[in-house]
Amino acid sequence: MQKTDSKGRILRGRWLGRGPVLDLEVRAGRVVSTGAAKRRHHDAGSERHNFGPTLLDIQVNGAIGVDLQDPTLEAGGLHTITRHLAQWGVSRWVPTLVTDSLDAMESAARVIVEALSDAELAAAIPGIHLEGPFISPMDGPRGAHPLAHVLQPDVKAFRRLDKACGGKLLYMTLAPEGKGAVTLIRAICGSGARVSLGHHHAEAAAIRAAADAGATLCTHLGNGVLPQLQRHFNPLWPQLADERLTASVIADGHHLPEDVLRTIVRAKGAQRIIAVSDAVHLSGLKPGPYEIFGGKVELLKTGKIVIPGTPLLAGSASMLTPCVAHLAKRGGMTWAEAFASASKNPARALGLPPRDTRPVSGKAADFLLLDPESKTMQPEAVYIRGQRLR
After folding, report:
1. How far apart are CA 302 and CA 298, in angstroms?
2. Which 3 state secondary structure label does DSSP give 105?
3. Short-list 377, 327, 386, 380, CA closest to 357
4. 91 within some domain
5. Whose CA is closest to 351, among 221, 216, 173?
6. Which conformational region is residue 173 in: left (phi greater than 0), alpha (psi within -120 to 50 degrees), or beta?
7. With 80 as the cut, is the pLDDT of residue 315 above it?
8. Coil, helix or strand for 205?
9. DSSP secondary-structure letter at 148?
10. Are 85 and 57 in contact (CB under 8 A)?
């Protein structure tokens, strides 16, 4: 919910966790002044707090009970997610539709596209991500996606989904080892969307062929693979080695051990890392048994979502801001690099216009203020396009 600050407020912290401590005065949604901290009194923040840009989450399946796969989804649900994410400093997000029947995926895509006639949603949602249905049918790589709806690469089926997206398809996650995958990748790239490799068990040759055909991304690298892999010949090494592929990671502390996360960051380089939440509709709900993607899952007290009786994860209950903090504190990134992984990097990878949100006097406020020692990592203050959210 938007809050008023007509009397102004002074926020203290360091931009991107470095440089001098600043006092930013914001009044009526605009930055009034920026300068080295000198005042005794301020409304929020301290020398340890970090200012950062508002964030872009390119993989959101739902939140606080709103499931994008729900056949009753309406624009109101998208507003609910948008406003919830904004409380965490996320100013733009990409709705992700996972493997389902073609009819169901088309229907959900049309609901989203029609909802984008609303100005608030249009500003927050730049497009759609289709995670499936052209993924591996294997247990493990398939994850929690329903086997009944997994398809082999099919250009005609893609055309149906693309049409339903109404020109708003940003990228599509697929398995590169399926017969006809290269032809499909070329068709997707020819439509103007990006291709991301995910939920697969491809060999190096298939991964290289996919990148040659135009694939530029890897979806939640390190997840959506077999629990046990051959040590030298597996899908991870070729994706880590190929400089053409930018990798998204779910840095929630559950999906990737710290050593693995740091290795991915070092191998790809900070500029080719995208932080994503992979949040599902269980995010923000109480622990317990639930159903997701047509199957049973359990939300643990730790925040981990698992398929009961297996080590397999089924999405995330985290928000993007804690993922950024985890990359900075445990993932081998500086705060500047971690913030970029959830703002500048995904925008560049998807061809979206960058948003310069660094506070400048006279400019609409568009930033967040984060306490790096916070247990929840929910920002102390959030401004998006001049609106105060926290």
Report:
1. 11
2. helix
3. 386
4. yes
5. 216
6. beta
7. no
8. helix
9. G
10. yes
DSSP, residue by residue, 34-63 = EEE---S--SEEEEEEEEEE-EEEEEE-EE
CA nearest 85: which of 110, 57, 47? 57
Distance of alpha carbon 85 from alpha carbon 81, whole angstroms: 6
Q: Which two tokens stand for residue 211?
A: 């990148």
The dihedral region occupied by 220, where left means phi > 0, alpha psi between -120 and 50, and beta the remainder, is left
Task: Tell me what pLDDT residue 56 has.
Answer: 98
Instruction: Categorize the per-residue pLDDT at 127 as very low, low, confident or very high, splitting at 50, 70 and 90.
Output: very high
Q: What is the distance of C-alpha 2 from the center of its chain? A: 23
- Cβ atoms within 10 Å, residue 354: 11
Range of the structural domain that residue 378 is part of = 9-52+357-388
Local confidence band at 190 (pLDDT 50, 70, 90 cut-offs): very high
Do both 21 and 159 map to the same domain? no
Sheet holding 367-370, edge to edge: 30-36, 22-27, 9-15, 44-53, 367-370, 381-384, 387-388
Q: Within 13 Å and on the Cβ side, how many CA atoms surround 75?
A: 11
Q: Which residue has the tokens 């609409």?
A: 364
Q: 138 by DSSP, 3-state: which?
A: coil
Residue 250 maps to a domain: yes
Token pair belonging to 70: 């729900």
* Structure tokens given for 255: 């999906």
Work out the average pLDDT over 226-245.
95
**Among 280, 211, 283, which Cα is nearest to 240's?**
211
Q: Are 274 and 295 in a shared domain? A: yes
- Each residue of 84-120: pLDDT tens digit? 999 999 999 999 999 999 999 999 999 999 999 999 9
Residue 246 tokens, joined: 């930018």
Query: Would strands 9-15 and 62-63 be described as parallel, antiparallel, or unpaired?
Result: unpaired
326 and 368 in a single domain? The answer is no
* Residue where the block lists tokens 């359990």: 298
**pLDDT at position 338 over 90:** yes
Give yes or no: residues 368 and 326 share one domain: no
> How many domains are there within the chain?
2
Q: Are 153 and 177 in contact (CB under 8 A)?
A: no
- Is residue 311's pLDDT more than 80? no
